[in-house]
Amino acid sequence: MDWAGWALFGLVATVALTAALISAQLAGLTRLDLPLVLGTLVTEDPDRARVVGFFIHLCAGQGFALGYAATFALLHRATWWIGALLGTLHVGIALTVILPLLPGVHPRMASQRAGPASTAVLEPPGLFALNYGVQTPSVAAVVHVIYGVVLGLLLQAD
User: Per the record's keyword annotation, is Transmembrane included, yes or no (predicted)?
Assistant: First the structure.
C-alpha cells in the first residue's frame, strides 16, 4: 500500500473536498456548513467551531483515504474512475447513514422529532441532508466524487 501517498494525498483530497463544499455553501448552493456542524460537537462558539470542525474533517478525510488506499491496494490498481465509484459509495453512506444519525449524538443538533422546547441551535440534516437545501445531495455527490478522483489519480496501488 502507498503509505506516503495516503498521508499526503489524503490531506490533498480532503482539502479539495472541503474547499469545494465551503465554496458551494458560500455560493448559495447548499446551507450545509460541515466545519460548523462538526465543530459544534466540541464548542458552542461558531467561529471556533468552524476552525475545529475543519480539522475534525481533515482527520475524518484521512480515515476515509485509508479505506480508499486499501481498496486500491486490494484491486492492484488506482484509477480516477475507481476513485469516482468509491466517492459515489462514500457519499451514499454519508447522506443515508452518517448524517441522519448525527442528531442522536450531536449535543447542539435538533432531532427530526424535536419540538418547540428544543434548545438545539442546528437543524437536523434529514435524509440526503435535504433540510440544508434541495441541491445539497448533488453538491455532496460532486465533492465526494472529486475526492475519489483526486485519490484515484494520485495514489499508487502498489
Answer: yes
d(CA 53, CA 59): 10
Distance separating alpha carbons of residues 138 and 144, to the nearest angstrom: 10
Please tell me whether the overall predicted TM-score, pTM, comes out greater than 0.85 for this model.
yes
Q: Mean pLDDT, to the nearest integer, of 124-149?
A: 94
Phi, psi of 45 (to 5 degrees): -65, 120
Please return the burial class of 147, using the count of CB atoms within 10 Å of its CB with bins 0-12, 13-18 and 19+. buried
CA atoms of 108 and 122, how far apart (whole Å) = 6
- Sketch the domain layout of the chain as residue ranges: 3-30+62-111+119-154
DSSP 6-55: HHHHHHHHHHHHHHHHHHHHHTTS----HHHHHHTTT-S-HHHHHHHHHH
Q: How large is the average pLDDT for residues 10-14?
A: 95
List pLDDT tens digits, range 46-62: 999 999 999 999 999 99
**Crossing angle for the helix pair 80-93 and 136-154, to the nearest 10 degrees:** 140
Measured CA to CA, the distance from residue 109 to residue 123 in angstroms comes to 6
Q: How far apart are CA 125 and CA 123, in angstroms?
A: 6
